[in-house]
Every structure is written in C-alpha cells, then in structure tokens.
Amino acid sequence: MTQVPASDLTLPDGVRVVPGRDGLTAVQVDVASCFGELYLHGAHLTSWRPLGSEVLWMSGAAVFAPGRAIRGGVPICFPWFADGPDGTSTPAHGFVRTTEWGLVDATTDGRWVELHLALTDTEQTRALWPHSFAADYRVRMGEDELALLLTVTNTGDAPFTFEEALHTYFTVSDIRSVQVRGLEGSSYLDMVPGADRGPHVQQGPISFTAELDRTYQATGATAVIRDRDRSVTVARTGSSSAIVWNPWVDKSAAMADFGDDEWTGMVCVETANAKADAVTLAPGAAHTMTAHVSV
Ligand code: TA6
Q: Which residue puts its alpha carbon closest to atom 6 of ligand 1?
C-alpha cells in the first residue's frame, strides 16, 4: 500500500494533520459528533470526546518523544504483550507503539470519521522480531461509539505467532467507586508482582482496593465500566483476552510518566489476545481484532 505524506492527503472537513506535542505529528478530528486526536507515533489515539465529554485518560506526565510510549489513550501492543510469552521480550508491549505509522486516508459518512493507518515490517522491526507483517488500523469515531479495528497479515513465507492489545486507558471519577462488570466467571491470571498467578475465576464484578492487574483468558465477553451514573461498554470481536489494570499508589509513584496521584482517575480495560490466546497466522493469512467502545 503506497502511502503519501499525511500532509499531502485530501482530508474530509474537520480532519486536519497538525503539529502535536513536542514535535510529533497528530491528526485531529473536530466534527459535530465528536473531537478526536491521534498521533502518527504509535498510531496512538490520545482523545475521543463524543459530544464534548472525554472518554480516554491521559497522564499529565505523559512523554511525547521518539522511542517512548505515550502514557494514556490507546497504546497498540504488538507483536507481544508486556514482556512476551517467555518473559524476555523487549521493548515492553512490543515495538509498534513507539514506531511511526502511515496515514493511509480519512473518510466520513457524515456521522462518524474513520482514520486508516498502516505499518509494515522494516529492517529495524525484523531485528527485534524476524517476521514480515502488515498491520492495518482503523479508528472510527462518532457520537456514541469508538470502533478500533486492528488487522495483522502474515506477509512472510512461514507461520508466526503474536500477541496484541489495544491497551485502552479510560477516565473515571474515582477508581475506588468503580466496578467492571461482564467478566464474571472468566478465568484470569493475576499479574500483580508477588501474587498467586493462578489461574483464578472471577467472582462477581471487579472492584478496586489495591493494585489490580488481571489478564482474562478465553473470553470474548463484553465488559462494562460502571462509574457512578456513567457506563462505558467495551465489546470485543476477534479478542479472547481482556486485561484490567489499575496501578494504585506504589506503582503510580514508580512510573515517571504517571502522576503520583493520578491513579484514582483511570482504569485500563484492554482488548487483547495474550498469553494462551496468542494468535498464529499461516503465510498470507490475516486476523482482525476489534474493540467497540460505547458510552
Ligand atoms: O496492561 C497492564 C500492564 O501490563 C501492567 O502490568 C503495566 O506494566 C501496564 O501494562 C503498563 O505498561 P507500560 O509498559 O506501558 O508501562
């Protein structure tokens, strides 16, 4: 897929390529139904504001720099999650969230706007992960739904296995009064350092009283973030894993790009295929994972 420089594209009304934070290029969507902002760096969605109300969470300490992941919004984790299946993969969460993606085009049907981005393997990526791939990402934003569609194609001549996640940070009023419902009965791994890894079975709604870092496996269940009088729904297709995370006090303090007191205002509910749910693609095959966020 040939890509022209983003600045040469003909874009729909309300869609602009603009200088973003600290020299990184951003695509801004400002239409009647919503505002949105996505950085070409990592194809990283940093804002979705349907009817003026921000749904995504961004750290006030986020760093916008080459080689660094932006803290908040929707980082894309690929071709591994965290430190990978054998626990030795770096950089954490793979390399596409710190790589510049190409803007293929932007389209609209008058109600929603879709941004289409693409990334293929390079000498640099093959040095980290010796496979040929094409990643295609579509971000469709409107008044009441944000759809994120990530398609991975094996463009090489041998099968490969990968993990992936749309590591979505949601803004909440106070995590201590939030529940995440819908994953009851699902099996999960407890990834909090020092915890009994499990697997465990989710008993009842998820509530937060300490650091929580759970990788739910073999479930496509829809999750609902209940935040006082507000609900955010995360429906998934092509995803067998969900990750729910809040760093709480100590881990927040340990992250330089995460404000010490910011942990109360966010929760991650991530659409993924991780650990036992990793995906294997034959040469020429493709796999699409989709998150549908509605408020
Ligand atoms: O999604 C949960 C998690 O794997 C946590 O363990 C924590 O490390 C978080 O991702 C953020 O990772 P990052 O590399 O972005 O700091």
A: 213
CA 197–ligand 1 middle distance (angstroms): 16
Residues 6+ apart with CB under 8 A from 63: 70, 71, 257
Measured in Å, residue 246 CA sits from the centre of ligand 1 at 9
Task: State pLDDT tens for residues 3-62.
Answer: 667 777 899 999 999 999 999 999 999 999 999 999 999 999 999 999 989 999 999 999
The answer, yes or no, to whether residue 2 has pLDDT greater than 60, is: no
Ligand 1 cavity residues, CB under 6 Å: 69, 82, 92-93, 167, 191, 213, 243, 245, 268, 270
- State how far the Cα of 38 lies from the Cα of 31, in Å rounded to an integer: 15
- Report pLDDT for 6: 73
What are the residue boundaries of the structural domains of the chain, listed by start? 6-294
Q: What is the mean pLDDT of residues 212-224?
A: 98
**Is 90 exceeded by the pLDDT of residue 1?**
no
Query: What residues are annotated to the active site?
Result: 167, 270
Atom of ligand 1 nearest to the CA of 93: 14
Percent of the chain residues topping a pLDDT of 70: 99
Cα(243) to centroid of ligand 1, in Å?
A: 10
Options 2.70.98.10, 3.30.1320.10, 2.60.34.10, 3.40.50.300; CATH for 6-294 is 2.70.98.10
Calpha distance 161→277 (Å, rounded): 10
To test the pocket of ligand 1, the residue of 167, 211, 248 to mutate (highest count of ligand atoms within 8 Å of its CB) is 167
What are the backbone angles phi and psi of residue 17, rounded to the nearest 5°?
-95, 125
Which amino acid does the sequence have at 1? M
For the chain, the farthest-separated pair of C-alpha atoms sits apart, in whole angstroms, at: 53
pLDDT digits (tens, 9 = 90+) for 58-84: 999 999 999 999 999 999 999 999 999
